[in-house]
């Protein structure tokens, strides 16, 4: 399992280079991408394509080669195989047949972002890509709300705004970092509360993005204090504005504040 650069070709390791040059074949997602890397390294090895859509058909063929004693290097288009990339089932089946699997570690966007985000790294949860549909995305974020760890997400640029909005709603206004185009010419790191990052977001963000979100405040939100603040706010403004104001002031998830506000209104009406 050979990690390859996530942008800067200088990040290839000496061991990755040696292994790629020595194996019988290199198994890759896209032969154009890996072909370019091998040409850059001056390495000529046969390429076998293995991706989401042909994995079931290719896996037995790759396992048969391994059973014959061939050595294969699995690479992703970028970074570490198996991290939001194919490889897991192949590793599992190879291991179940007694084929040794070795790691040739190296770049990984999640780890690179963690190392520079300035958020706690003692505990983190790698979420990878959230579902593309809003309802499913919100459900996953709601599951993550109580997780006492930094969250690491991969996101496509055109979905970043929606995802940040959903994070604000479901997780509260936590500290976060947008790590864009890591190791590349246009590398950019933006740190701040989710609300601030949203306010400063370009109309059409571009590039590859890791979103890192800090853990929840250690103390659970004080629901009684939130209710008191809501009561006060509701006495002078609409439910929508009261929820927005109390969520912003307390940093509590907007969905929680909204639920409490509905409870108060229900009580008032009853
Ligand atoms: N296996 C890769 C790894 O080890 O990081 C991840 C592959 S995943 C299919 C691709 C996603 O990783 C991108 O959409 C982006 O979220 C993230 N990514 C990859 N390279 C990146 C970079 N240079 N800067 C920021 N994010 C990156």
Give a written overview of the molecule.
The chain is α/β, with parallel strands linked by helices and 270 residues long. 44% of the residues lie in helices and 14% in strands. The chain has three domains: 9-96, Tetrapyrrole methylase, N-terminal domain (Cobalt-precorrin-4 Transmethylase, domain 1, 3-Layer(aba) Sandwich), CATH 3.40.1010.10; 109-213, Tetrapyrrole methylase, C-terminal domain (Methyltransferase, Cobalt-precorrin-4 Transmethylase, Domain 2, 2-Layer Sandwich), CATH 3.30.950; 223-266. The chain has eleven helices and eight strands. The strands form two sheets. A five-stranded mixed sheet has the order 4-5-8-6-7. Strands 2-1-3 form a three-stranded parallel sheet, with helices on both faces. The longest helix is centred in the last third of the chain and has 16 residues, at 254-269. It starts with 13 loop residues before the first helix and ends with a helix. S-adenosylmethionine binds at residues 6-7, 76, 78-80, 83-85, 108-110, 154-155, 179-184, 208-210.
């Amino acid at each position: 399992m050979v990690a390859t650069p996530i942008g800067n070709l200088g990040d290839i390791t000496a061991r990755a280079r040696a292994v790629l040059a020595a194996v019988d074949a290199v198994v890759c997602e896209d032969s154009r991408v890996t072909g370019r890397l091998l040409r850059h390294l001056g390495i000529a090895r046969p390429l076998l394509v293995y991706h989401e859509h042909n994995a079931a058909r290719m896996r037995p063929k790759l396992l048969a080669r391994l059973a014959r004693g061939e050595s294969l290097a699995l690479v992703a288009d970028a970074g570490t195989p198996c991290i939001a990339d194919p490889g897991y089932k192949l590793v599992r089946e190879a291991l179940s047949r007694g084929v040794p699997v070795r790691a040739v570690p190296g770049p990984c966007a999640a780890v690179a972002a963690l190392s520079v985000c300035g958020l706690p790294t003692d505990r983190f949860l790698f979420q990878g890509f959230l579902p593309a549909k809003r309802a499913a995305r919100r459900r996953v974020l709601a599951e993550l709300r109580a997780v006492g760890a930094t969250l690491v997400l991969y996101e496509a640029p055109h979905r970043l705004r929606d995802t940040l909005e959903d994070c604000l709603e479901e997780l509260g206004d936590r500290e976060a970092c947008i790590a864009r185009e890591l190791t590349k010419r246009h590398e950019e790191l933006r740190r701040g509360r989710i609300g601030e990052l949203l306010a400063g977001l370009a109309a059409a963000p571009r590039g590859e993005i890791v979103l890192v979100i800090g853990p929840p405040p250690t103390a659970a939100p004080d629901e009684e204090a939130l209710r008191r603040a809501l009561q006060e706010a509701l006495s002078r403004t609409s439910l929508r504005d009261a929820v927005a104001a109390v969520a912003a002031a307390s940093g509590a998830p907007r969905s929680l504040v909204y639920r409490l506000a509905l409870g108060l209104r229900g009580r008032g009406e009853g």
